């Protein structure tokens, strides 16, 4: 795994935690921030996956 994959997965987890916490306590702002952070983490992890695939093919 490369740096982007690891950081992306961590951001996904932190975002999911914020999202669930926001739902539980009824805080829509926290829930939305969690969804955004989760999506950003997925993008970063996807970028890391792409980099890994390119390095494997070279």
Strand content: under 5%
Total separate domains: 1
What fraction, in percent, of the residue positions are helical?
Answer: over 70%
Q: Average pLDDT, to the nearest integer?
A: 97
Sheet with the most strands, sense and barrel status: none
**Unreliable stretches:** none
Class inferred from helices and paired strands: mainly alpha
Shape estimate: rod-shaped
Question: How would you explain this protein's 3D organization?
Answer:
With 58 residues, the protein is mostly helical. It has one domain (3-57). It has two helices and no strands. It is rod-shaped. The two termini are 16 Å apart. The model has no long low-confidence stretch (mean pLDDT 97).
What distinguishing features does this structure have?
rod-shaped; 0% strand; 2 helices
């Amino acid at each position: 795994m490369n740096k982007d994959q690891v950081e992306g997965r961590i951001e996904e987890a932190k975002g999911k935690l914020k999202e669930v916490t926001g739902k539980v306590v009824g805080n829509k702002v926290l829930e939305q921030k969690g969804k955004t952070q989760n999506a950003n983490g997925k993008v970063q992890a996807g970028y890391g996956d792409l980099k890994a695939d390119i390095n494997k093919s070279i």
